[in-house]
Amino acid sequence: MSFLRIVLLVSLLGTSLAADSLRTAARGRVHVGTAARPGFIIADSRYAATLAREFDQLEPENEMKWLLLRPARDHFDFAPADDLVRFAKQNGMVVRGHTLLWHQAVPKWLADGEWTWNELSQLMADHIQTVVKHFAGSVYAWDVVNEAFHPDGSLRSSIWYDSPGIGAEGPYGYIERAFALAHAADPQAKLFYNDYAFEAGGPKFEAILAMARDFKKRGVPLSGIGFQCHFSLESISAAALERTVRAFTDLGLEVHITELDVRLPVDSTGQPSPKDLERQAQLYGEVVRTCLEIRGCNAIQVWGFTDARSWIPRAFQRYGAGTLFDQEYRAKPAYAAVLDSLSQTTTTGGSHK
Ligand code: G3I
Description:
This protein is of the alpha/beta class. 42% of the residues lie in helices and 17% in strands.
């Protein structure tokens, strides 16, 4: 079946949204999103139906990265990302864009090229302008720069930063320039800096906060910070998350939870223990409640929603089961906890948007 026919079919099914889906429970206070992949929408009807039923925000898991979007210097392949944008529109979802600059998912032609400062600078500018303009009006928020800091708070080595990269230009070099370019290409889009393993505080958190303060002071068009939230059961407490989120919202910035999942140790058949499933549910619920209680935390997005299609087992040996639905699309305790948190919480900080 073609992608278009699947989009139409799912849209028809979606006209009677269940009253107890995540997106309806959120009641417009926050966007409830997920990363998604077009191949799964085509191949797996349960995937497509669950995606449309539960979420009002979609982010391409890979399709807007340089590797997929720009297979050759002079060739952009927008089709897979456009398919996802179309699916989102047909199902009343907003779209987050991910990501304009990252040290990973860099195509070979770019990684292996011998670039002068000027060439790399021009490539970056052309790329950001072309991509942001292509999706203007469809993508409401961009992860402009992804994961630019090391755990110790220093700037990460990447093609953009290293010699003859464009990182030597002022303290935040290419990062600042990327935000200015994205803003010029689509002044309406919200522009985010997105990172992981800083959500509980520490040197990386301090470095991102210092950058955010500096950008605010000098008028660099930064709208907010993406908290990826790739957690294990030991990663974080709700109190720590509240402190770090508030550090940014207190500056007048937005926070989006962008890539939430909670990986669990699993046995040889991929099963977690019942006790860990309950602890996982508790952490998911706490993250959702924390965001809802802070004015300026405006989106809660998971990084995939079913254990059948998650990136986690490929990345972490003997871990898995990190999402809201199991391999058979049965709702897990974590789903119930998120639904409950979205249903119960009344926002103390007034309107979120
Ligand atoms: O699709 C090809 C397949 O054709 C090929 O046979 C196979 C061989 O390895 O690779 C497949 O591509 C993989 C792709 O995911 C789709 O499955 C790539 O190898 C793999 O590297 C890629 O991983 C993605 C990763 O980012 C790197 O781009 C994950 O799906 C994606 O979940 C992950 O997402 C990142 C965020 O962008 C940033 N934050 C962390 C997060 C998790 O790492």
